[in-house]
């Protein structure tokens, strides 16, 4: 039986008064993708609609739900010019809706299926692909399903990686240092995945990138057979033929990319230094580390009074604190709930900065947030505050700390102990900050998540 929401989907309509649902552009096992339009601005968006019922019925219950939550968290963390950007997640009784940027150029697969690319065009797309994949790996994200169907093109025909539904996080790596879930698309899967003995997520992505580059240059797959087991045997043995029109430099790179031994397979950093790859490559494409621009305070009208949607809340729960993805103390993200007003939080943070013997200064202040700097530019912190309920606010803290001459850890020694006094005290830990039982029990953040968006 088709429910009311499904009928609205089929004939189009407005979702939550904000997005107009248009033409169906893609369909998968658990989701449909529509072209949409933001009613307020007229801007085109892509809306991925995931059916909760289909997830629970066919997707393995809790595992499928966990995959959706992980995809939300991963996409929210990735901000790169060659990765599709997730702008919002909405939820209804039976659906989860991913609102993403719309890639007007369609799938790269549709372009290459019409004929192979020149080496120059193949190189251009491969450079963009490696830039984005290297960025993902630096954030502890492994895609695990890279293929031309998941590579979209924007209106300027630049690459956009999409579909992180099978992605893994570094925290999923087992004590042996490997991932163990066998997944991916058969023709693009690495031989070590087929061996089912564990694999390095970064090396598996590099293999898939090699298959993609082969397809761009040749116009067909390096490993292909109607019999799946025969194809797997070819992959495992590395049996493929490079087309005769391929230049010597590209031939050498493809051989290193499609090396069946993951230990000797070329790495992202080695790819960037490869002679064929480097032609016309802009080094800035590989530099997407956290910079000051990432710590800018949002405009005042974007904070505080903006109602928090399901995405804001779900990404703030303990399960989605991904600070562990960042190496060292370079960047940390904390989210927690407080019963203090925004005004009081800002005042107290000002007092903290003023009492630090000039180590900390308030660089910018708004009614619903502020930026604090210190240690001669080695420490920076942005605090954003949003109203969660009538009595609670959600505080989002992002901070960057580089090694200072004093050797002092400003976050651990000063800021974090101060924040513990601000945290609301429900019965569990919120975003890594300890809390105590509140017998009145307004509810913990986990309760808010489950009430707002039950998956």
UniProtKB/TrEMBL annotation:
It comes from the Eukaryota. InterPro entries: Kinase-like_dom_sf (IPR011009), NAF/FISL_domain (IPR018451), NAF_dom (IPR004041), Prot_kinase_dom (IPR000719), Protein_kinase_ATP_BS (IPR017441), Ser/Thr_kinase_AS (IPR008271). PROSITE patterns: NAF (PS50816), PROTEIN_KINASE_ATP (PS00107), PROTEIN_KINASE_DOM (PS50011), PROTEIN_KINASE_ST (PS00108). It holds the Pfam family NAF. Its EC number is 2.7.11.1. Residues 19-277 form the Protein kinase domain. GO terms for molecular function: ATP binding; protein serine/threonine kinase activity. It is an enzyme of class 2 (transferase). Its cofactor is Mn(2+). Keywords: ATP-binding, Kinase, Manganese, Nucleotide-binding, Serine/threonine-protein kinase, Transferase. It catalyses: L-seryl-[protein] + ATP = O-phospho-L-seryl-[protein] + ADP + H(+); L-threonyl-[protein] + ATP = O-phospho-L-threonyl-[protein] + ADP + H(+). Residues 303-327 form the NAF domain. The keyword Cell membrane does not apply. SMART domains: S_TKc (SM00220). ATP binds at residue 48. CDD domains: CIPK_C (cd12195). Belongs to the protein kinase superfamily. CAMK Ser/Thr protein kinase family. SNF1 subfamily. CIPK serine-threonine protein kinases interact with CBL proteins. Binding of a CBL protein to the regulatory NAF domain of CIPK protein lead to the activation of the kinase in a calcium-dependent manner. This is non-specific serine/threonine protein kinase. It comes from Eruca vesicaria subsp. sativa (Garden rocket).
